[in-house]
Amino acid sequence: MTLDQLRKKIERKDARLAVIGLGYVGLPVACMFAEKGFDVLGIEILPERVAKINAGVSPIEGEEPGLESVLVKVTSQGHLRASSDYQDLSDRDVILIDVETPVDENNIPGYNALRAATRSLGSVLQAGSLVVVESTIAPGTIHNVVKPLLEEGSGRKLNEGFYLGNCPERVMPGKLLANLRTMSRVVGGMTPETAETMVLLYRHIVQADLDPTDSVTAELVKTAENAYRDVQIAFANEVALICQAVGGDVWRVRQLVNKSPFRQMHLPGAGVGGHCIPKDPWLLAYGVQQATHLRAADQQEVPLRLIPAARAVNDSMPHNIANLLQNALHSAGRELAGARILVLGYAYLEDSDDTRNSPSEALVERLKKMKAEVVIHDPYVPEYQGELEQLARNADAAVLMVAHSQYKKLDLNGLKNLLRTPVFIDGRGLFSAAQLKHAGWTYRIIGVSVQE
Ligand code: SAJ
Questions:
Q1: pTM greater than the 0.90 cutoff
Q2: E-strand spans in 333-372?
Q3: Catalytic-residue membership of 8
Q4: 20 to 30 A Cα–Cα from 362, which one of 52, 190, 317, 393?
Q5: Does residue 222 have its Cβ closer than 6 Å to ligand 1?
């Protein structure tokens, strides 16, 4: 099939689609194309997820407005079917790849899932079909990983036997369907005609801008937009540490800095978690190492200083909280070893149940190493939804790690009376020094120097 024929099928919604990887990105996108009337096949390796999806039950945790009802509709209409069998891909005209792309403990991308999916797809790839990677990948991955695997597996050449591109997702847990509809997307094709064909496809589900580019640009945009946020947060965190050291209050400093035009100093805090921000800067950085698609003469050594430094600052923030805790306990006559510490918040983000790469995980690990007894409360995370008052009883400190709305309404007096030692560490700047002092706490606030 020529690209022109494929375009016509896409415009008529006759193109048979597939999505490999029915997670928090793949499932919503499969549902949205199916809801538009496309025949969508979902490939998922976990049999229990396949069964759930075919029964119209979403396997995705957390509240996702509208997802369950769309899933029930498109599965009952037969527009979406899930399977574990890659053979079922052999009649697909367009295949989206939405598998995980984590980085390992050395910050190297873990492409096992991407390689496995691409290799299996290559072996059944129909002539003239279009493959689109939606997963977040390091610059150069389409050229150096996906293209060779598809050519080897299918025995066909790119742009003759199949077409290839990448269209990074910009979803956010809790707003999966809404973001897919309303967020603009970069549409990277290995040829301009491929990018234009992809725009025709995504126009069926995206109401915002669809910006055609080459593949490397699409890889760069996605990883750079999140690296950018990581650096911005790291700057706020470093200013917080400076304020702690020199007698400042970063929350007041930030408020006044942001009065200056074109300043948007971010929020300092107890750390940076989640599935995107801690990972994507390393994917961007890795692009330099894997730039083998360029001629050797054009490759350049790039001294990566800012991105690793920002990661180091943000990863240090849970340890900064532990230090604040240790010196607050000390001034209250207690040592950390043997103290009972109540951690408030285990999710990585306020009003979320998602705990991936949570800063609280790093804090709890550090406290346990220092022989403290740790109890955890989080209103959104099932295993930590215990009775706050119960958990606070006889604690020697309360450490606020996540700005859950519920914590903004904490009864500071009531809580203090439950603890054995009234120490409060505010990792998200939810409370003022005056509030905590007035309630009788020995306190530390991130970015605020000690005023005892
Ligand atoms: N955080 C700070 N200070 C800030 C902002 C965030 O410490 O000023 C911390 C949060 O507490 C959290 C982490 O950083 O631990 C990440 O927060 P986030 O608001 O960036 O939320 P994410 O991880 O869900 O980021 C997603 C990203 N979206 C996609 O990758 C599609 C990111 O690009 C978006 O900017 C972000 O959502 C958003 O808020 O829109």
A1: yes
A2: 340-344
A3: no
A4: 393
A5: no
